[in-house]
Specification:
Elements lengths: L1 H20 L3 H16 L4 H13 L5 H23 L6 H7 E4 L1 H10 L3 E5 L5 H10 L5 E3 L6 H11 L5 E3 L4 H10 L3 E5 L10 E5 L2 E5 L2 H9 L2 E11 L2 E6 L11 H22 L16 E8 L3 H15 L3 E2 L2 E2 L2 E8 L5 H14 L16 H9 L4 E5 L4 H11 L2 E5 L13 E5 L10 E4 L8 H14 L6 E6 L7 E2 L2 H18 L1 E5 L6 H12 L4 E5 L9 H8 L2 E5 L3 H9 L3 E6 L2 E2 L3 H12 L4 E4 L3 H10 L6 H15 L1
Helix pairs in contact: 1-8, 2-4, 3-4, 13-15, 16-19, 17-18, 17-22
Length: 649
């Protein structure tokens, strides 16, 4: 099959050579521009080009300007191909009529120096034409060319490159001819702007992002004493170009070779950045230049709910703890948070419905979101750049998907997204074990929600609690009381039974701490305030709807040996298990909990992470647990999640 494709590609190239050879140069280039801009509408790589432009220039360019630059770039590449096909037709007169060379004297001085020279450029302008111009001016050069997939096509392209005296060599054995040419005082041409891959080259910032940079050209110069000269060709219009010859890069032979190479590479990248910034449509944006990057951006979307943000923030912290990428140190993360606010509930519903429909066309049209989001949120979303977007909360699903399509970021969702977003693409979905139904394909089922991994928060929270309340050190039990959940609620009668049982338990196990939930009813709150405050065994009481310190729950879990949580409070059960504590899930309340609650209890119980108990058995259950050794489950699950996050890189 490859042989057939090779023959087809070779035949097409030969046809184009004949076809464009029969046309006037200007006409051929106009057709090349038209063909390139037509390909733009069908090429998936235009999305990569748009993303790279946004990551590099940010708000310096509007979405419309980015799309225009990419479209113009495709036209420019079409013209490059035409020019390669007509290399044999080019003459010195054509060069003098259509190409202006700035600082030609620098090039001539390099030739006269006799030291040999490395002409550095990038996939910028028509880089292939540079070597032809050198040959037509009487100074042919050796060029390092990447071997193409198809042998016949590769041979044809190299013959075109060598039309006017240049010598095309490939990596491997061909590098020896480059060394020989430099030692003979000749010139070689090298493209130095592409990635060196995951393990080769050195790491340097390129447009602010640390990435791998090939060092071959700089090593050749250091090894042979040759001079390095950046040169760039800019297309003005059709066949008219302008060449910019830069000064020779500064080198200090007294430095160690490694430092010399790093300095030379840094100077070249600074020069290249300058030209790309001035002529952005001339560079090869559709290449995944930052695929191997050691600088990553994490964006957290927030719906304003502290619990949701906490989950996302912990996942961000886990990802940011990674310090190596493909075994190389230096990985660093930058994090940004955007609070998403809709103009109204109606706008939220409308975007929820429309987002799956407009997602394929949203890139470059992110302004559409301005009609749904409040100005502050929209401004932040419009300017956002990210490699990873993390979100928790069903209301964020539309923005999450659309912003990922705009930025090319990988998506991490926490908790099961609502339908139809469950069937849309997520790079990682962190879903509680109790959730059933349709789940995203790349799901990580967890018993402990990410917030349960944040041990460092508990240390500061404990200190804050101890500073304000005396005697909490003696409280061996923490109690979390929930409340209304659909057809379920905790009544005053249930609260009375709990208070009596806690009084008995505390005689053997020291004091206890208790907090209600925002779902706890007023009558239950009033009863607990009256009954618990009279019990000297209660070291700390929180009525969540009146005063709910941010540190309270975390500190209580950390201080206690046993944590008792009513069965309706799934998040608190998960956090208690994550804290490595002995956890009792208390069956207390009237009515039926949703099925997912019972599934969650069953999974935890089967894994030995919690002990189920009714109020009548609570005293005995606590006594039995006191005798058992601690169980720590969070490390195993945390490490598994960390591995999945690492795989996203």
């Amino acid at each position: 099959m490859e042989r057939i494709l090779d023959l087809a590609a070779y035949g097409l190239a030969r046809f184009l050579m004949v076809f464009f050879g029969l046309l006037p140069v200007k006409t051929a280039l106009v057709l090349g521009d038209l063909a390139g801009k037509t390909v733009f509408f069908f090429s998936k790589k235009r999305r990569v080009a748009y993303i790279n432009l946004k990551n590099v220039f940010g708000e310096k360019l509007t979405a419309r300007e980015r799309r225009k630059i990419v479209r113009d770039h495709y036209g420019h590449i079409g013209q490059n191909i035409v020019e390669v096909m007509i290399f044999p037709r080019l003459t010195p007169d054509h060069i003098s009529d259509h190409i202006k060379i700035n600082h030609l004297e620098r090039f001539e001085d390099l030739v006269k120096s006799g030291k040999g020279g490395v002409l550095l450029t990038g996939h910028f302008g028509n880089w292939e034409l540079l070597q032809v111009i050198a040959g037509l001016r009487g100074t042919p050069i050796h060029v390092l060319a990447r071997a193409q997939k198809f042998p016949r096509l590769n041979g044809l392209l190299n013959r075109l490159r060598e039309t006017h005296g240049s010598v095309a060599v490939t990596r491997g054995a061909g590098v020896r001819s480059l060394i020989r040419a430099l030692r003979e005082g000749k010139l070689i041409g090298v493209l130095g702007d592409q990635s060196a891959g995951k393990t080769e080259g050195i790491l340097l910032p390129f447009f602010g992002r640390k990435t791998s940079v090939p060092t071959g050209a700089f090593e050749l110069a250091v090894r042979t004493g040759a001079l390095l000269m950046p040169s760039y060709m800019v297309r003005l219009k059709n066949a008219h170009h302008e060449i910019f010859v830069e000064n020779v890069l500064k080198d200090d032979p007294s430095l160690p070779n490694e430092e010399r190479i790093r300095s030379l590479a840094g100077q070249y990248l600074a020069s290249l950045e300058d030209y790309i910034s001035r002529f952005p449509n001339q560079w090869l944006w559709e290449n995944k230049r930052w695929k191997y990057s050691w600088t990553r951006k994490i964006l957290i979307l927030s719906d304003g709910k502290p619990g949701h943000f906490k989950q996302s923030d912990v996942v961000q912290e886990l990802m940011s703890s990674l310090v190596e990428f493909h075994g190389r140190p230096g990985l660093e993360f930058d994090t940004e948070k955007i609070h998403i606010e809709y103009r109204s509930s109606l706008h939220r519903v409308l975007l929820y419905v429309l987002a799956p429909l407009i997602k394929p066309w949203i890139q470059g049209r992110i302004d559409w979101l301005g009609g749904f989001l409040k100005p502050g949120s929209f401004g932040a979303v419009k300017a956002a750049r990210a490699d990873f977007i993390i979100a928790a909360g069903s209301g964020l699903a539309p923005v999450h998907q659309l912003l990922a399509a705009e930025t090319g970021a990988k998506t991490v969702v926490i908790m099961k997204p609502p339908f139809p977003y469950t069937i849309m693409r997520y790079d990682l979905a962190i879903v509680p074990a109790h959730d059933g139904g349709i789940l995203p394909k790349k799901s990580f089922r967890c018993v402990i929600m990410p917030s349960g991994y944040r041990a460092r928060d508990r240390l500061s929270d404990v200190a804050e609690l101890k500073a304000g309340v005396t005697g909490v050190e003696d409280a061996g039990i923490a109690v979390f009381v929930g409340g209304k959940t659909r057809h379920f609620d905790i009544t005053v009668s249930d609260a009375e039974k709990l208070a009596m049982t806690l009084k008995k338990i505390s005689k053997r196990n020291g004091g206890y701490m208790l907090t209600t939930s925002r779902r706890t009813s007023k009558p239950v709150e009033q009863f607990l305030k009256t009954a618990i405050t009279r019990d000297p065994s209660c070291r700390y009481l929180v009525i969540a709807n009146e005063d709910n310190p941010a540190y309270a729950a975390s500190a209580m879990i950390s201080l206690a040996n046993i944590v008792i949580v009513t069965g309706d409070s799934l998040a608190m059960i998960s956090e208690a298990v994550g804290g490595g504590k002995k956890v009792i899930v208390l069956n207390l309340g009237e009515g039926e909990l949703p099925p997912k609650h019972y599934r969650f209890h069953q999974v935890l119980s089967q894994r030995g992470l919690v002990t189920m108990s009714c109020i009548e058995d609570l005293e005995r259950t606590v006594a039995d647990l006191v005798k058992k050794t601690d169980r720590v489950a969070k490390d195993r699950e945390k490490n598994a999640l960390l591995q999945r996050l690492g795989e996203l890189l």
